[in-house]
Amino acid sequence: MELKNIIEAAWEDRNLLKEPQTQQAIESVIEALDKGSSRVAEPAGQGWQVNEWIKKAVILYFPIRQMELVEVGPFEFHDKMKLKSGYRELGVRVVPHAIARYGAYISKGVVMMPSYVNIGAYVDSGTMVDTWATVGSCAQVGKDVHLSGGVGVGGVLEPIQAAPVIIEDGAFIGSRCILVEGVRVGKEAVLGANVTLTASSKIIDVTGTEPVIYKGEVPARSVVIPGSYTKAFPAGSYQVPAALIIGKRKASTDLKTSLNEALRENDVAV
Question: What pTM does this model have?
Answer without folding.
Answer: 0.93
